TrEMBL record:
<comment type="function">
    <text>Hydrolyzes diadenosine 5',5'''-P1,P4-tetraphosphate to yield ADP.</text>
</comment>
<comment type="similarity">
    <text>Belongs to the Ap4A hydrolase family.</text>
</comment>
<feature type="domain" description="Calcineurin-like phosphoesterase">
    <location>
        <begin position="5"/>
        <end position="163"/>
    </location>
</feature>
<dbReference type="Pfam" id="PF00149">
    <property type="entry name" value="Metallophos"/>
</dbReference>
<dbReference type="GO" id="GO:0008803">
    <property type="term" value="F:bis(5'-nucleosyl)-tetraphosphatase (symmetrical) activity"/>
</dbReference>
<dbReference type="InterPro" id="IPR004843">
    <property type="entry name" value="Calcineurin-like_PHP"/>
</dbReference>
<protein>
    <recommendedName>
        <fullName>bis(5'-nucleosyl)-tetraphosphatase (symmetrical)</fullName>
        <ecNumber>3.6.1.41</ecNumber>
    </recommendedName>
</protein>
<keyword id="KW-0378">Hydrolase</keyword>
<dbReference type="InterPro" id="IPR004617">
    <property type="entry name" value="ApaH"/>
</dbReference>
<dbReference type="InterPro" id="IPR029052">
    <property type="entry name" value="Metallo-depent_PP-like"/>
</dbReference>
Amino acid sequence: MADYFIGDIQGCFAGLQKALATVQFEHGRDTLWLTGDLIARGDDSLSTLSFLADHESSVRTVLGNHDLHFLAVANGLKNVNPKDNLQPLIDSARLPYFRDWLRAQPLLLALPDESGFMSHAGLPPLWSPKKAKKWASILQESLRSADYRQFLSEMYGNKPVKWDKNLTRQEKITFSVNAFTRMRFCTKSGELDFSNKSSPKSSEANSLIPWFEFEPERFDTTKWVFGHWAALMGETQNPNVIGLDTGFVWGNYLTIMHWQNHQKIQISA
Ligand SMILES: [Mn+2]
């Protein structure tokens, strides 16, 4: 019985299969943990989502920005971006099934040994893990509700960029969606930045810091597993902050981590 964590798959079905074969993954015995962005951009989102939904008893995933975007597209709230390669999924007879399977997935998961959490983007400035739990459960409830289309139509927005207990409820919801699925950098005073996707080492990063360098003591006793940030290539300089998106869809590699023995295996694209 092993727990394996894999970073953003983004519809790269062959890469996923290669990773599972490499570790001799066995459904029913092992558990596969995914950092979200299961689909979009890669060459076979339909097979990827079919496989994950059909093996749901051994799969635990959080939702990423691409997964939420697909839900908006599948509900006619957003247009299909041709670059996403999602048309076969949209045209599938199982679309309603995939849509409902995806919207039942959480934004936050507790790690296998309760040592911390996993979310697609991370833990935003000024939030404790407890606050993340609270807002993840509010978003999850909205996504699972009968009128979830309303939620999807209202969740988008680049503001507010900073958490404040005096924000309106809708502002808090938009902030939470962005915090769980879109954030990478923030300012030293805790404002989220949504435009910079570079590496923290790059000159483009300027005075911005990665979200996990904001009050890093938050991670002294809480581990955090995340994806979403390919340019980071898993380099966080903090053993408790574990970044698993290593840009397979962009030609780099897929990272698969054995939770119990901390071993990381790389599958080249
Ligand atoms: Mn993402």
